[in-house]
Amino acid sequence: MHLKRKFLVPLSLLAAISISVAATLPQQEREPPKLVNLKVFPKNIPYRVLDHTMDEWSASLGVRCNFCHARNDATGKMDFPSDAKPEKTAARHMYLMMSKINKKYFDAKKDSLGMVITAGVNCYTCHRGDSHPEVKVPEEHHGPGGPPPGGMPPGGAPPAGGKG
Ligand code: HEC
Ligand code: HEC
Asked: Which residues are near ligand 1 (CB < 6 Å)?
């Protein structure tokens, strides 16, 4: 029981502190920011779910928030609703692609918010911590008959009219 007591004390202390901190914060600071420019997430997504998703995306691509989000030059602060960066648009497309793959090919269900559960693939499946995964076929696997089905031939598109 030694272990248990060791944990109980700091936990209750922490709870007491966070309650008193919350009580002293003005209402405005406690409310999560309003989400104003959602085009692919459900409009009623709770802030903590969005926040968690953003952390996951950043980690999957090995980037920080400013890879997709622009900074407001005047205020010097991040402008999360802004669509100024093309990477943000790319990420929306990626999210839609991922949802479609999971729904169509992995029979993934939707959660209570209407978001497709990432059953089969997620951002990390392809990105592995790389914001721009290279699209290529490993050289050593090009057999005498050319690249494997679905692979890109070396040097780009096959010649027009060729047998492929
Ligand atoms: C890979 C790109 C990407 C990264 C990295 C990213 N975001 Fe986002 N973020 C998006 C996209 C896309 C949306 C819009 C989703 C939609 O249209 O439904 C968004 C929306 C948001 C919003 C809602 C803005 C609004 O009010 O409309 C917030 C807040 C946000 N992101 C915060 C963050 C934070 C904090 C980080 C870093 C931890 C982060 N994002 C990292 C792509 C990204
Ligand atoms: C099926 C594989 C796959 C999945 C899943 C995937 N991506 Fe990608 N993503 C790619 C590839 C491949 C590229 C590079 C495309 C190119 O070369 O133009 C890319 C490019 C991007 C880019 C543009 C990067 C740049 O350099 O401009 C962003 C942003 C991005 N992905 C975000 C995401 C996010 C966020 C998710 C999860 C919601 C995701 N991706 C899921 C394969 C994937």
From this structure: 35-41, 50, 54-55, 57-58, 61, 63, 65, 67-69, 80-81, 87-88, 91-92
